[in-house]
Recover the amino acids of this structure.
């Protein structure tokens, strides 16, 4: 008789612990590297002391808040991507497929065109995201049944419309404002200095998603099977839509339209540890947060003092890693 196969739980617990450690390492890397490089001893001394030294102010007022914002945004995007792929039953689902980022980008560009910055800009982006959410929800539901296909098609069409409006705004904008607009469209964390709200939303969003983890495992096998096993599919889909919309709206408001993270990170984690949402959701959040912190640190340091769009770095870092993992899985290694 064959010996029983070892339980996968220790492997998954070890993987989550490893991701937590990677998150800490990425945070230390983010606060250590910049115009003034600091070794780990200097970082520890600056954080442990109470004197207002240059190093302490540099870490606490600039680098650490930005790193925490990046971690929260990356975690929210990865979490929203994992949920969206179940909601739409489509492996290409990502936080932006419903046009939420398009609405946020359109209103943010209008605010930039009017000369607004800071909280006004973030408020305009959140307002645009909220309008996009209401449009998708209203049009997808309509007078008929709300199906994943109808939701996806509605989102794609609205995203195309937002794209046309964004192109119009860029066409009529003064040349002096275009660089800032393009940076925001590609993703920019330069103004992300208040991590409290995004971290809170990430924590609340992840906690709410974990309450839905078991129904999500069943729903991923198909709506009919989920209904047969006692899952109330319609309220679950509505909850997923509202949750993904909220975290996407906040992430876009904080960091702009940072692509790739929400699409690829959940797939990367599935290749490592399977599709159990009790592990997938926190693992994706930690992996997405770590990836964005690392990418943002490179974006602000590679060509310093010039900063690169962080969305470019996330794609350049994530694509080869994902292809490597996919090749290993297909080869059975």
């Amino acid at each position: 008789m064959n010996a029983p196969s070892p339980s996968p739980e220790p492997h998954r617990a070890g993987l989550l612990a490893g991701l937590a450690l990677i998150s800490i390492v990425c945070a230390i890397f983010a606060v250590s590297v910049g115009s003034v490089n600091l070794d780990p001893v200097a970082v520890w001394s600056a954080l442990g002391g109470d004197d207002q030294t240059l190093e302490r102010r540099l870490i606490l007022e600039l680098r650490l808040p930005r790193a925490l914002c990046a971690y929260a945004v990356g975690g929210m995007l990865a979490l929203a991507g994992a949920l969206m792929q179940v909601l739409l039953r489509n492996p290409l689902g990502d936080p932006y497929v419903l046009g939420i980022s398009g609405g946020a980008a359109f209103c943010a560009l209008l605010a930039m065109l009017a000369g607004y910055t800071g909280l006004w800009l973030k408020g305009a982006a959140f307002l645009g995201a909220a309008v996009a959410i209401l449009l998708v929800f209203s049009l997808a539901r309509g007078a008929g049944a709300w199906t994943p296909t109808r939701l996806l098609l509605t989102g794609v069409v609205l995203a195309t419309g937002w794209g046309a409006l964004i192109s119009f705004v860029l066409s009529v904008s003064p040349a002096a404002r275009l660089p800032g607009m393009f940076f925001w469209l590609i993703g920019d964390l330069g103004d992300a200095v208040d991590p409290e709200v995004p971290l809170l939303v990430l924590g609340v969003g992840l906690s709410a998603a974990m309450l839905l983890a078991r129904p999500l495992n069943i729903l991923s096998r198909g709506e009919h099977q989920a209904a047969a096993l006692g899952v109330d599919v319609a309220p679950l889909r509505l909850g997923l839509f509202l949750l993904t919309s909220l975290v996407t709206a906040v992430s876009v408001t904080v960091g702009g339209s940072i692509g790739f993270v929400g699409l690829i990170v959940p797939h990367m984690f599935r290749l490592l540890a399977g599709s159990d949402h009790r592990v997938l959701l926190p693992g994706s959040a930690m992996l997405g947060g770590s990836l964005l912190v690392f990418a943002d640190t490179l974006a602000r340091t590679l060509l310093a003092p010039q900063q690169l769009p962080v969305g470019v770095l996330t794609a350049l870092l994530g694509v080869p890693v994902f292809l490597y993992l996919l090749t290993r899985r297909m080869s059975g290694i």
